[in-house]
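Input record, target 12 of the design panel.
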């Protein structure tokens, strides 16, 4: 009996450690390189790249109070909003009909989530999918807020997206022991529905502590129905994910300011802390890029260099790159350029009600923000969605 148990255990371990998936090898096959030099950044005004600003207030009532917008999806006239930490809810708002729906389903039953980790819109099935990485479930809801069904995933992740008949995961330093390879985990991977890993990329060492590396929880940019883009934190490589493969697409090059072996050697030192790593990065001038977004026409991201935050906009039509520091708001004077979504020629940002109230005294005469918005906004109102329309640049 003991012998049989030992054989069974070894067999289970063998299959659990089946590392037959293909690693993505980084080489010169990135489609193009975007080069940034922080010493050559320029002052860029909003009016240089934006042709207009539109304000979309989200109606506020006691049954529809949004704590924070952690993710925004725009589907036709619908705004789908994830508030992960405050109300733990999904909100759906139709800007034409003013119809409002809130989904708040914390629990362990069918249709419930423990953590509202991620959401995305499945254009093929016409459903919004909610991902809970604690239950490892994807919950399907229609646009009216009705629960349809759920499915179980084999891995824990921070971002998940279905593409074709497969799933892509952005792990973000969460460890999945069954897919370790050469003492490293794939930070980005593509799997079949039953969990077989087809390929992986952006590997991180098994001894890296998630408490030591800063994460912005990068999102997938939807390029089209069959391709996504994502740039993992602490990486210069942007990957395209198709229904069959992961492809190195762009390389963000800061030359001698790149995050490289110097950074990772420091992370793994004994007694290292987050503050020490940050101080080290600032001291030697490493550039860390965040908040990457892309569509067929434009790339937008930010990077930090010695405590200064640069904003980069790149036109895929003209191949012109703007490295803005500072990025000066000469249009409405109050909306910070912190994009939550880029879709077509529209860039979606957020404006908090208290910011409008604070600025209303000096903005009133300039009329740079609609008077109706200045006069009606209350301190506890829901955030305002601000839509910037891009110029060709």
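The sequence produced for target 12 reads:
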């Amino acid at each position: 009996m003991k012998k049989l148990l030992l054989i069974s255990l070894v067999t289970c371990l063998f299959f659990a450690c089946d590392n037959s998936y293909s690693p993505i090898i980084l080489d010169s096959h990135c489609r193009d390189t975007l080069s940034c030099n922080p010493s050559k950044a320029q002052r860029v005004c909003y009016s240089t790249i934006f042709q207009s600003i539109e304000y979309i207030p989200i109606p506020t009532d006691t049954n529809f109070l949004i704590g924070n917008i952690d993710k925004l999806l725009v589907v036709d006239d619908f705004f789908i909003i994830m508030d992960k930490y405050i109300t733990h809810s999904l909100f759906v708002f139709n800007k034409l009909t003013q119809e409002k729906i809130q989904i708040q389903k914390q629990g362990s039953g069918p249709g419930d989530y423990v953590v509202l980790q991620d959401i995305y819109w499945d254009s093929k099935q016409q459903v919004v999918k909610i991902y809970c990485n604690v239950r490892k479930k994807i919950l399907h809801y229609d646009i009216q807020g009705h629960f349809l069904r759920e499915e179980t995933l084999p891995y824990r992740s921070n971002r998940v997206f279905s593409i074709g008949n497969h799933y892509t995961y952005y792990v973000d330093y969460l460890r999945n022991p069954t897919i370790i390879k050469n003492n490293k985990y794939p930070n980005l991977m593509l799997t079949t529905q039953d969990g077989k890993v087809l390929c992986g990329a952006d590997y991180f060492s098994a001894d890296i502590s998630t408490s030591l590396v800063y994460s912005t929880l990068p999102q997938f940019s939807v390029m089209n129905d069959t391709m996504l883009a994502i740039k993992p934190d602490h990486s210069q490589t942007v990957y395209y994910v198709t229904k069959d493969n992961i492809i190195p697409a762009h390389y963000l090059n800061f030359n001698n300011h790149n995050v490289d072996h110097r950074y990772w050697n420091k992370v793994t030192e004994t007694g290292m802390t987050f503050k020490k790593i940050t101080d080290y990065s600032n001291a030697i001038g490493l550039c860390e890029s965040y908040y990457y977004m892309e569509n067929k026409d434009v790339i937008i991201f930010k990077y930090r260099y010695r405590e200064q935050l640069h904003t980069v906009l790149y036109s895929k039509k003209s191949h012109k790159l703007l490295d803005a520091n500072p990025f000066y708001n000469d249009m409405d004077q109050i909306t910070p350029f912190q994009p939550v979504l880029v879709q077509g020629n529209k860039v979606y940002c957020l404006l908090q009600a208290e910011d409008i109230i604070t600025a209303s005294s000096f903005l009133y005469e300039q009329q740079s923000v609609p008077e109706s918005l200045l006069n009606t906004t209350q301190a506890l109102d829901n955030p305002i969605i601000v839509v910037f329309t891009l110029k060709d640049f």
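The radius of gyration is 22 Å.
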